[in-house]
């Protein structure tokens, strides 16, 4: 039996929040969700102009959008964002935890402040957003989907990224814990782990790192953000409802776990 009316987009009537949605993987996922009919909450910490550009793309596709600026390490800011989402749309069905900051520092030169800046955004931020978003999702009673974006270096190792690697490994543990706890609410939780993804990198990320094993992808090209969005897409479709608690790699064969 069809889960949608003929010609209806599979996510019609659904609302999705994508953190760090202004560029690269976050932008690609937001536009993919919009193509499937979801209303998109475009979250950024500060790059409002880029966020509004993504929202404009969503609306050109015939979709609805909401731009939210929030520091996800601050509970009050996230609470305000969730209140805005509820006031505008009345629900939340899909959460993509993509926001992250990356930096490089040799471990023996890394300060506690540097460590906390990275783990605070990647791991604590994911906890804070998930905690608030899932309350809204559970309140709606219609089930939902959470996708966390991991990092390949959590599996391979990489020099000068101990803080990033630790935080991304924690995301995978959180994924499994939430999948177990949220199953009674018909909410699936998975983690998608990108490999080397090309495109413009943030200023804080520095040069692309060399992974611990020094390999190159079996697929003879660098990944693009749309490769990741294409892998995430089946998880939010109704046909993906049997997949939860999984770590799914998208890396062209760079790592086979």
Brief sketch in words of this structure:
The chain has helices at 24-35, 48-60, 75-89, 112-140, 153-156, 162-182, 225-236, and strands at 15-18, 39-44, 65-69, 94-97, 144-149, 187-194, 247-250. The protein starts with 14 loop residues before the first strand and ends in a 7-residue tail after the last strand.
Q: Which strand order do you get reading across the main beta sheet? A: 3-2-1-4-5-6-7
The helix/strand order is EHEHEHEHEHHEHE
Annotation, overall tally of beta strands: 7
Low-confidence stretches: 201-206
N-to-C span: 36 Å
> What is the molecular shape?
globular
Mean pLDDT: 92
Secondary structure tally, helices = 7
Radius of gyration: 18 Å
Proportion of β residues? 5-15%
Q: Which oligomerization state do the chains in this entry correspond to? A: single chain
Q: Structural class of the secondary structure composition? A: alpha/beta
Explained architecture:
The chain has 257 residues and is an alpha/beta fold. The protein has seven helices and seven strands. Strand 1, helix 1 and strand 2 form a beta-alpha-beta unit.
Which features does this protein show?
41% helix, single chain, 257 residues, 7 strands
What's the structural blueprint in terms of helices and strands?
Layout: E1 15-18, H1 24-35, E2 39-44, H2 48-60, E3 65-69, H3 75-89, E4 94-97, H4 112-140, E5 144-149, H5 153-156, H6 162-182, E6 187-194, H7 225-236, E7 247-250
Parallel strand pairs: 1-2, 1-4, 2-3, 4-5, 5-6, 6-7
Helix pairs in contact: 1-7, 3-4, 4-6
